[in-house]
Amino acid sequence: MKLNDEQVMLRDMAREWSDKENPVTAFRKTRDAGHGEHYDPEVYRQMAEMGWAGIVIPEDHGGSDFGFVSLGLVLEELGRNVAASPLAATAAAASAIVLGGTDEQKAKYLPKIASGELIAALAIEEGGRHNPEAIETAVEGGKLSGKKLFVAEGDSAGLFVVAAKDGLYLVDGDADGVSRESRDMVDARSHAEIAFADVAIGNDARLSEGGDDLLAQVVVRAAAIACAEMLGLTRQAFDTTNDYLKQRVQFGQVLSSFQALQHRMAEMFAEIELMRSSVEGALAAIDAGGSNIAEKVSLAKATAGDVAHQVTHEMVQLHGGIGMTDEHDAGFYFKRSRVLEQQWGDAAWHRQRFAALQQY
Hints:
By secondary structure, this protein is of the alpha+beta class.
């Protein structure tokens, strides 16, 4: 994809900052520190100061309105170092407000999100597998009740975009009736179960713009955001493995000299290039506002899921015994990949939806 000058500068800045200020060792340190948020708030403050929290937020509300391709460039570089931050989750929630919020809702929440002051999260899933149509959360008598599972950044979110039977609602994380329980996942990131027990909902809480398919539009964007992070971690998993094969000696020869391993690396390289094309195509489609966004995102998520799974699996295997240890970084990529593969629909779910979309 051809990037403009601003996008090139943004990508290069994100790469340099991530490698110097937030490398994989920083994730290990954050994980071991036991932050309640599962990320370092000071690090996220720095990201917000660089404008990353407002990339998909309009300029009128404190953002830069650089679009999803630009957001993807940043998330790809953060993904290379499995950086722990609420940027992806907050951007997905912000996109819901941009799409469906009234002028008052946008003015109230978007500037705080863009500045990094407010962490927002999507509270949609209610089952063990992705199914945005299976929503039992409901609003009755001005009160919202329901339970949401696997809410990314649910431990620290100050605002939830909650899917109910009749639409999306904005719910303050500190409102009476909101409770959260952290869930330990293999990637050591923030995932929480959020319960809403008769939470009072004002007339201004519902996202009323964006049309009847607002939830579908939001989930599509959340899936595309996950794809960008997956691209970064997959790319780094490949590069790390490739470097290891070039220096590890076995039977008197470096591993990279064995033809069988060369073929495996060549196959992965080609698959990653296909992955990049599909992910960038999905992000560009969102920015262009075309009619085929859902189709392109499903293609990207299915491809990303398959390729990330393959490359991180090979990373562990080709590193041998050390790849199975916590002392090596391979496990971080493997575990984060497995979570992102399931988030917002796995490869099988998106292949099925892609096929269904082809019928129309």
